[in-house]
Write a structure and sequence with these properties.
alpha/beta, 7-stranded mixed beta sheet, disordered N terminus, disordered C terminus, globular, 2 domains, binds pyridoxal-5'-phosphate, Aspartate Aminotransferase, domain 1, single chain, Aspartate Aminotransferase, domain 2
Length: about 400
């Protein structure tokens, strides 16, 4: 792909728009779904168990419970841990809103902790400060696909008798000190939205080694009923009992067949994401105004996102203009995320205010997520970096003019 050179007021332009993320669907995926369409079970059938077992294996645990989406996975996890009114659950300020919303669904109180500015991962020191006698769980978010500091978080959870949950929606396939994401917390949640590491269109999963919790969550995703339609068919019985108030959070066999087909390509995709990220890292080492997030040596990063920070001295104050310029030039930048405690709902309902998580709030002003998905090539990366270099040069100059 070529990039048109241009002057300062007309930045270089990509010859096609690259979004920050995009699904990858093959003929095999389509065949897998159409086979299910011709079968007896469109939902609650054998593909669900097959996909659950495959994801359990891919995350190094015994059990996996498939649900309708990643948000349902988080809600199901909170139900599994019996979170309720009066309980506090610590969540990072930088995450998708669903990480905190799931606590509220159960009547609990989300407590926002700050992040490490180098990685934007939940900072154990901030978690420690937020722990009270009401703390019942800690949700670690493997932001961008990088696993959190699980040794430190596990120790804090043990000391405070809280349950550690991983929101691993970005991180299927990643590892921490050799151990697969999905096996690092009591419960781990995944999303299979089209932008995520693998997709089922909409879909989610909770993984665990705890049989009792898996059973409880399996009932929750089916109205809180003890048997599902297929189990009753197999048993030749009509009887069922509703033992808890659950939801219909089931994932269909069509979606599970797609998930199985996608999962077979996860390792290759992750290697491609890592290679593209290395290329970005190399190129940005030549551009001092742009700093990529740090990857810790003890992790294998899944690179759901590639996130840069604009330098605080000048550039960051033009983030809005830089964002608009890059979008106009065909670079589908995004911002992950607006700190959750700053959203009007949280300010209104939980009286969270700016200043609560200063590192997250500062980072939010400076970050941009760049295009990264397996179908991209290293020359796409070079083109994107070229466009960014020119845009950055434009606004660095601007900053100097203003300072004079
Ligand atoms: C995508 C995502 C979710 C929600 O997943 P859905 O499948 O969209 O409901 C939750 N947490 C994080 C960190 C996510 O990225």
């Amino acid at each position: 792909m070529s990039r048109k050179r241009s002057t300062i007021d007309r930045p270089a332009v990509m010859d096609r728009y690259l979004p920050y993320s995009r699904q990858n669907i093959t003929e095999d995926d389509i065949r897998a779904v159409t086979e299910v369409l011709r079968s007896d079970w469109l939902t609650t059938g054998p593909k669900v168990e097959e996909f659950e077992q495959a994801v359990a294996e891919a995350s190094g645990v015994k059990r996996a419970v498939a649900v309708a989406n990643g948000t349902a996975a988080l809600h199901t996890a909170m139900f599994g841990l019996n979170i309720g009114p009066g309980d506090e659950v610590i969540v990072p300020a930088i995450t998708f809103a669903a990480t905190a919303n799931c606590v509220v669904y159960q009547g609990g109180t989300p407590v926002f902790a700050d992040v490490d500015p180098d990685t934007l991962l939940l900072d154990p020191a901030s978690v420690e400060k937020r722990i009270t006698t009401r703390t019942k769980a800690i949700i670690a978010v493997d932001y961008a696909g990088q696993p959190c500091d699980y040794d430190a978080l596990r120790q804090l959870a043990e000391e405070s008798r809280a349950s550690l949950v991983a929101d691993a929606c970005h991180a299927l396939g990643a590892r921490y000190k050799g151990a697969l994401v999905g096996s690092l917390a009591k419960l781990s949640t995944f999303s299979f939205h089209p932008v995520k590491p693998i997709t089922t269109a909409e879909g989610g999963m909770v993984t665990t080694n705890r049989d009792d919790l898996a059973e409880r969550m399996r009932h929750f995703r089916n109205h809180g009923i003890t048997t599902d339609h297929r189990q009753r068919e197999l048993q030749g019985s009509w009887f069922y009992e509703m033992t808890d108030l659950g939801f219909n959070y089931r994932l269909s066999d069509l979606q599970c067949a797609l998930g199985l087909s996608q999962l077979a390509r996860l390792d290759g995709w992750m290697a491609q994401r890592q290679a593209l990220a290395r290329r970005y890292d190399e190129e940005f080492s030549k551009i001092p105004e742009v700093t990529p997030l740090v990857t810790r040596p003890e992790v294998e990063h899944a690179y759901h996102l590639y996130v840069i920070r604009l330098s605080a001295n000048g550039l960051a104050k033009y983030r809005q203009e830089i964002f608009a310029n890059l979008r106009a030039a065909g670079v589908g930048v995004n911002v992950h995320y607006i700190p959750v405690h700053l959203h009007p709902y949280y300010q209104r309902t939980f009286e969270t205010r700016p200043g609560l998580c200063p590192k997250a709030e500062l980072a939010y002003e400076q970050i941009l997520s760049l295009p990264l998905f397996p179908a991209m090539t290293s020359s796409d990366v070079d083109d994107i970096v070229g466009v960014i270099a020119e845009t950055v040069a434009t606004f660095s100059g601007c900053g100097k003019d203003l300072e004079i």
